[in-house]
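Homework help thread (please don't just give me the answer)

Our assignment gives two proteins as sequence + structure token strings and asks us to describe the second one. The first is just a warm-up. Here they are:
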Amino acid sequence: MKSKLIIFVAIILIAGCNKVNKTETGNDIKSDKIYQYSLLTALANKVYDGNLTVADVKEKGDLGLGTYNGLNGEMIVTDGLVYQCLADGTVQVPDDSELVPFTVVTFFEEDQKMEIGAVSSFNELKSEIENHLPSKNIGYAFKIEASFKTLKYASANRQEKPYTKTLSDALVDRPLFDVENISGILVGFWYPEYIGKINVEKFHFHFISNDKNLAGHVMDFEASNLKIGIDYCDGFDIELPDNKGFETADFDLSQKYNNNK
């Protein structure tokens, strides 16, 4: 199983290219690929340290999500700015030198726009979006503006070395927050089901309020006035951590991330 995972990652890496390429005149052009650092399987198996910096993340995309070394809260990237939601619910702007074990970002360019008057749940929104996707075999990035009547979201508790809890165990007692009557932005991705152990299949969203005081991993909500921007992505650019933690990890492929926890 482990060898199959490595082969699959290698195929994607060969097919991908850097998010920013050069034209013949030397100008930067941005591709429509989704950049991902590390694997969900690695994060699920306690590989909570990476050597990618927040400054690096900004060079890879202007919209996305992730976490920080030691599972120290949730990452939200929007409009090229990176935020960190800590376990106590506070939101801060991390230093460019802060390290990241897992992130997914892209340079967002809207290819499709939808407007929905109201939804009674996150699942209702996901079903509505899926019904309008042109293909289930490519990746998508989303930026959604909405007014939330209710919103349930989460952060993560920082883990201490030596890391003993798998991701599913670490999230059992994750901090949960409930708010009402707030406006904000959802950022996230849809990955095809064939993505396997590389990332969460289908939807994964993070939230940040318009005043940037609240943020986290989206659990559920009731919302109205939804303006949905969708970016069609033409591939995946996956970079693996260059450190001992990743290289020596013995991946248990049965470890998963329940996106609803």
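The one we have to describe:
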Amino acid sequence: MARRKNMQRRREILDNTFRLIRANGFDHVSLQMIAENSGISKSLLQSYYPHKARLMTDIVRNLFNTMWDQVEINYHAPKKNPLRPGGRFNLHDRDFGNDGQGPGPGNYGGLY
């Protein structure tokens, strides 16, 4: 239970830090501002993150991990095509008049 609370508090600190930096810029955000926004003391914040740079490192790491996860989800997601029932658009030799003789007028050499 304590570990879950610890992770939840870290997420809240990172979320609040991200919002503050986005609104005010990195140089205009202090550890005191982050602590106040997170509803904790500055000393407790420093027990999680001793330096503002460490906060930024974790924010950037989380941002890249989130982006990577979205790329993975979208890259491996089955693509749906509205032109075919079931979302699959299959091209066959017969669709292009390909007689299996390779590239030529009307033949696409199996490249589809």
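TA reply:
I won't write it for you, but here's a hint about the kind of observation we're looking for: Residues 87-98, 106-112 have pLDDT under 50 and may be disordered.
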